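testing teh design pipeline on a random one, pls ignore if ur not involved
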């Protein structure tokens, strides 16, 4: 018997709900969008739009990688914080781990288009007068250190999810589909042996959760400094690392809100994932929407009052140039103003339609954030805003690729962990009995 928030569900009832197949449109949608985006990207590379294609690729790599890592980070953070309320939604968040090996491959692929993204590669004289920057921004050195940072972060994420999946693999292995038996056998290997089973996996998950938090901050900050700040090599901002990884964290929360609403409805889990869970997720989205605005304004204020040319030029370009000031304003409206007012109350956070709408707007806002912080530094001057069909096509392709990875995970593993829910139910019953 699984007990959560005073709702009792038998294991068989939960497993029957989780066995419901995906909607028939899900896989064709993700495959179709990936094929379309990939085809358009290749056509742009073969034509005159190769520079614009690689820049859109860069923006989307930053956005979708941050979103995917943040999904795993959600589980890590609530594990460390002992956020037991989140038991039904942790697997929904961490399922984005399936995109991380692909993200690493995408990182390596960008090497071939780096000259279109990093202006100091084509024009090394931009940094030649500053020896420290010339040393730090050596082409191979930059790629190597970021590869090491991402490999460490992604490896910890995958290892963490491995230990998260082991209890469910051991429980469900006897009845799993033939195509997945080898995978489940590998995941549950030695699970029943003393010292190698449930207690060890639980201990490892706690350890890895604690290690993931600083690793996330360091690796994502390094990515921000090298893949965002270096695009304007004379611009400085000590706050950019925190601003970048907290923006990614916000996308993890808002994507979790959308995915929770989807799975809750599709699997008819309203009795298990209640409006209280939506309220809790909504409160996190609301809180970190405000925190995004706080870090954004803190960065703005320091640069503005410091009034140093190498710092203020970054702001003036985005605030005064006709082609950039509109999209810069839209970034603030989409990421902060609209989500803030949409879910400021209790009822909107508990209403799936309103919470989902606010989350979608916020995701669009953070994508715009990634665009605003990168593309003006590369393009500098343009006849008009370079945002249109090419960027949309590449974004659609990345969405399809991320969706394919997420569905790959969802087809193989229970999107709600029955063993985690049972453990939390037993802990709850034990706590009640102790009183």
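output:
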């Amino acid at each position: 018997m699984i007990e959560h928030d005073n709702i009792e569900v038998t294991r068989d009832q939960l497993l029957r709900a989780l066995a419901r197949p995906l909607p028939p449109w899900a896989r064709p949608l993700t495959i179709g969008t990936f094929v379309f985006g990939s085809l358009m990207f290749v056509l742009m590379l073969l034509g005159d739009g190769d520079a614009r294609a690689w820049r859109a690729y860069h923006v989307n790599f930053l956005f979708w990688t941050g979103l995917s890592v943040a999904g795993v980070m959600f589980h890590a953070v609530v594990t460390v914080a002992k956020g037991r309320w989140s038991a039904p939604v942790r697997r929904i968040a961490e399922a984005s781990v399936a995109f991380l090996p692909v993200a690493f491959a995408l990182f390596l692929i960008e090497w071939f288009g780096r000259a279109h993204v990093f202006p100091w590669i084509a024009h090394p004289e931009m940094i030649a007068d500053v020896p420290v920057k010339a040393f730090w921004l050596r082409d191979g050195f930059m790629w190597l250190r970021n590869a090491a940072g991402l490999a460490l972060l992604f490896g910890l994420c995958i290892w963490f999810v491995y230990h998260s999946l082991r209890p469910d693999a051991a429980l469900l292995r006897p009845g799993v589909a033939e195509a997945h038996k080898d995978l489940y056998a590998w995941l549950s290997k030695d699970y029943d042996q003393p010292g190698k089973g449930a207690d060890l996996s639980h201990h490892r998950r706690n350890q890895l959760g604690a290690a993931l938090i600083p690793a996330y901050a360091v690796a994502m900050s390094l990515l921000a400094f090298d893949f965002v700040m270096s695009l304007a090599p004379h611009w400085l901002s000590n706050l950019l690392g925190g601003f970048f990884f907290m923006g990614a964290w916000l996308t993890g929360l808002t994507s979790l809100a959308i995915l929770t609403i989807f799975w809750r409805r599709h699997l008819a889990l309203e009795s298990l994932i209640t409006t209280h869970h939506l309220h809790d997720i909504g409160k996190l989205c609301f809180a970190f929407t405000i925190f995004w605005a706080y870090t954004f304004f803190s960065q703005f204020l320091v640069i503005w009052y410091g009034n140093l040319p190498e710092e203020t030029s970054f702001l003036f370009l985005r605030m005064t140039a006709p082609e950039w000031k509109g999209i810069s304003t839209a970034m603030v409206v989409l990421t902060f103003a609209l989500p803030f007012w949409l879910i400021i109350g209790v009822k909107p956070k508990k209403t799936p339609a309103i919470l989902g709408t606010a989350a979608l707007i916020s995701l669009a806002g953070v994508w715009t954030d990634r665009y605003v912080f990168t593309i003006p530094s590369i393009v500098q001057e343009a006849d008009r805003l370079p945002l249109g069909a090419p960027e949309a096509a590449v974004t659609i392709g990345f969405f399809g690729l991320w969706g394919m990875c997420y569905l790959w995970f969802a087809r193989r593993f229970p999107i709600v962990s029955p063993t985690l829910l049972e453990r939390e139910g037993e802990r709850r019953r034990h706590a009640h009995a102790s009183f």
